[in-house]
Amino acid sequence: MLRTRVITAVFLFAAFFFALFYLPPLGWLLFATAVAAVAAWEWGALMRLGGSLRILLALILALLCAAISVLEPAAVGLDADPANTARRLGAYFYLPAAAWWLFAVPLWLRRRWPLSNAPLGLLIGLLLILPTWLALVQLRQAGPLSLLAIMTVVWLADIGAYFAGRRFGQHKLAPNISPGKTWEGAIGGGVAVVAYGFLLSSRLPAVLADNYLLLLLVLILLTVISVMGDLFESLLKRQAGLKDSSQVLPGHGGVLDRIDSLTSTLPLVALLWLATLP
Question: What is the dihedral of CA 42, 44, 48, 53, to 10 degrees?
């Protein structure tokens, strides 16, 4: 099992690194769309849909991404990128996603509602996957290293939480959703994210680099949102009786298992990024 995980991790890193740094804008757009389509197929499993309906859901998601790209090529990097176009799409995608994660998800986790309503399940799936897809595409326009640095925030939150939880974990964070997570682990992840953010503060937009209190609040918020993304998918998997969202990544589960925290953090970061555009 460990060998399989390592081999898959090496392959994933190599594929992601190549796509991020070497693909042209259209190639990266297709890469992000493929990731989103697989995530939509897996989301169908969380909704307890059959195989044909899950494939249809993936195709619809891919067609939506294609339609957005054709209608707004500037916003996805296929044409000159006027800030107004990006902001317009951001208002349509990132603001609803931010409202969902900041206000609806905490209540959902508290009440532990099931994903039993098909129209609601489809709406939530779009609210999770489409803004993440657009954020992947748009944030890469700020530079591959910038997107990698942003994604590192989520990875550090996970790594910090894992090691802090193993060393100090005593108090369960959400025992009925994810028994392995602890408050100590979440705090450890937050400390790692804050240290990382302040280390790179000189490379951040002036509104954050010149205001340490605001930067601290943003980093703490990103850590909390990252944990909520993880917990939300864990809740839905538990309710659906699934250990992983799929088995497309041997030893690692599915795409949603790897991007669950990114679905909550990337749209929020993209919203902040658009707010700093001239």
Answer: -130
Nearest to 181 by CA among 146, 224, 214: 224
The tens place of each residue's pLDDT in the chain, 278 residues long, gives 667 878 888 999 899 999 999 999 999 999 999 999 999 999 999 999 998 999 999 999 999 999 999 998 888 888 766 566 777 788 899 999 999 999 999 999 999 999 888 899 999 999 999 999 999 999 998 899 999 999 999 999 999 999 999 989 899 999 989 988 999 999 999 999 999 999 998 888 888 888 899 999 999 999 999 999 999 999 999 999 999 999 898 888 899 999 999 999 999 999 988 887 76
Q: Where exactly are the structural domains of the chain? A: 2-276
* 3-class SS letters over the chain: CHHHHHHHHHHHHHHHHHHHHHCCHHHHHHHHHHHHHHHHHHHHHHCCCCHHHHHHHHHHHHHHHHHHHHHCHHHHCCCCCCHHHHHHHHHHHHHHHHHHHHHHHHHHHHHCCCCCCHHHHHHHHHHHHHHHHHHHHHHHCCCHHHHHHHHHHHHHHHHHHHHHHHHHCCCEEECCCEEEEEHHHHHHHHHHHHHHHHHCHHHCCHHHHCCHHHHHHHHHHHHHHHHHHHHHHHHHHHHHCCCCCCCCECCCECHHHHHHHHHHHHHHHHHHHHHHCC
CA-to-CA separations, 127 to 17, 104, 150, 175, 270, in angstroms, rounded:
27, 12, 20, 26, 15
CB 193 within 8 A of CB 269: no
pTM of the shown model: 0.94
